[in-house]
Amino acid sequence: MFDKVFEIVLNMSVTASIAAILLIVVRAAVNRRIPAYISYASWSIVLLRLLIPFSFSSILSIFNFVPLTTGTAYISNGINAANVPATLDFLNMHKFDTVNTNLNSTAGLSGTVNVKSAELGSVLSLIWITGVLVLLSISIFNYIKANKMLRTAVIIKDENILTELANTLGIKRKIRIFTSESINTPLVSGILKPRIILPSKLKNLCSNIELRHFITHELVHIKRFDNLIKLISTVLICINWFNPVIWLSYILYQKDMELSCDQKVLALGGKDIRGSYAQTIINLASRQNKTLLNGGVLAFSESNIKKRIKSIVNYKKPRVWAVGMAVVVLAVMGILLLSNPSSNNQQADSNASQVNAPVNTKNDSKPAVAVEKAVSPEEFLKLYNLAVQGEPIKTKIDVPKKWDFILGEYPVGLYWQLANVFSRDAGYDLTALKGKKVDVLIYSLKDGLPGQGEQSIYSYPSTAILLVDSNKVAGAWLSFNRRQIGPSVKKHYLKDITGMDFPEWVDREKIFTYYGKNKDLAKLSPDELLKAYFKAIDEGDKVRAHACQDPQDLLDSLTMNMGDNSLYNPDFTSNNSIVDNIVNVKLLSYKYMDVNDPSISDVKITDKTKQFEASIELKIKWSDEAFNSPGGMQTRFSFLKKYDSGWKISGLGTGP
Asked: Hey, is 425 helix, strand or coil?
């Protein structure tokens, strides 16, 4: 779980860092020429990059010119990869989609690379979450302690100055002023009900002018919701504690916040108050010492005094044209840094990337072929020595925008996630095609593909499936008899590429973990799941019944009895789903099969694999009367397997 979250955080942190570095460069170059509030506002770009895992695409995006890959870490979350931030995909090296070619070729690595890299990813994610929890705990502790200290604050009843200044700033929220002996600097406390708290000694010693300056400064913070932004920023710095660029951004953002707040106070004055305001800051610094509240979640630390005084003394009210120019600069920076690469660039980058999974010499004795550019279908077939028979079947398909789904729904997303495993083995990332209509070419191959497992001695007719966008190949994989997705065009199977078989891959990718209203199924025992399955069928609750099925069964239903010019069936029907075939059913009895029974000695039933077989008697009626037994009595066999999402039922066979 933490592995995937860390991948997302790391990818977002990288893109935010790139935006931050560019902002720091621009900030250093034009800082004196633009109002401080524009510089302060520009940090919202970094904030949004850290908060939102998706964005819009643009040909103006700076990431069109940065050699990064697309955000493949979000595939299993169903987010459109054309809209996720460009990323370094650092942790994805342990997944099938980002295995490094150079390492693979020079070190002769085998499938164990995936396992070791996965372990490294798990260790790093554990270190990350530990750091997050430690920093959040410290922040929460300080927050609670600071709140406790401020409980003794005393309200100031004379609020004439506060009312006058709040009206000047156009603040409609009800705000109160307090004094406290626990602090030595003015601060804003609270989010929903903010209050200004002044040091008791400062309140008694400062002049009326200084008091107005203090209150105005804190009111500006409240008007701009700086207290809320600082709280969010504190949480984000805890999450991205490993990134020094984000720490630097956090420090600079706070400095720009104070400078922009100072300039707003100066702009509100009807006359030149630079001298008196600068003196107020100096007087405050002389009385101030560092306490728990300075720089914490609740407070605004009045640091960087020398720079602030210099900024105050040199302040000039900006001209209209300068403000307009600054706004334009900010807007341009927003488009450059908040947008992601255009889909065309993403497709080109994806096709140009050289991705080689660990090679299984048993199934592939030929040297690996890397796709270095977008090629035509004819060129692609030559690259991989694919001998075809006749002309291909041509059709079109709309690639779904979302690849996630709730258990019980038709799992089209599973098809695309699995197809992407094999397509990326040839250097093509199908996520770049989400939401697009593409051409499909289905070639019948002269060479058959060997079976696997018990049927490895047989050879099956094979098919090459090519997805074509703008007359260039954008994805490709092979299939058995149009029924099985994969292997890749390099003849690598799922385990060759990922180091896992299908059930293990399903669990690692957390594909079947979203139940919707059927969450209770995950907690059922095998016999309870059998009862729930047949009850759901009998009551016509097809979604719940399908949610009880094994992922492999659901995958088979995608291609069972489909048309020749289709990649998969559009939905569940009586032609591809036993649930839809059954009119009514009742579970009469069941029993667990004896694991020592010679007739099932080839079935691996162990606690480790969490697999077993159960014999069940059914009263069943088929839509097709030809399949019905006299009286509707039948004996069926069902094989159950334990997944991370609970027990699943694999079909209803007529024999063990």
From this structure: coil
Q: What is the pLDDT of residues 46-92, one digit of tens each?
A: 998 888 876 666 666 666 665 554 333 332 233 333 344 444 444 33
Residue 533: both structure tokens together: 């399955």
- Measured in degrees and rounded to the nearest 5, phi and psi for residue 200 equal -60, -45
52 HSE (CA, 13 A, CB side): 13
For residues 170 and 645, what is the distance between their CA atoms, to the nearest angstrom? 54
User: Facing residues of 398 across strands?
Assistant: 437
Residue 353 DSSP code: -
In one letter, which amino acid is 446? K
> Partners of 587 in the beta sheet?
618
CA–CA distance, 13 with 10 (Å, rounded to integer): 5
Is residue 487 within 8 A of residue 363, CB to CB? The reply is yes
Kindly give the residue spans of alpha helices, DSSP state H, lying in 151-273: 160-169, 200-205, 208-223, 226-239, 244-268
Burial 424-457 (b: 16+ CB within 10 A, else e): bbbbbbbbbbbebebbbbbbebeeebbebeeeee
Q: Which residues contact 357 (CB under 8 A, 6 or more apart)?
A: 96, 99, 104, 425, 488, 490, 492, 496, 497, 498
Handedness of CA 538, 543, 549, 552 (dihedral sign): positive
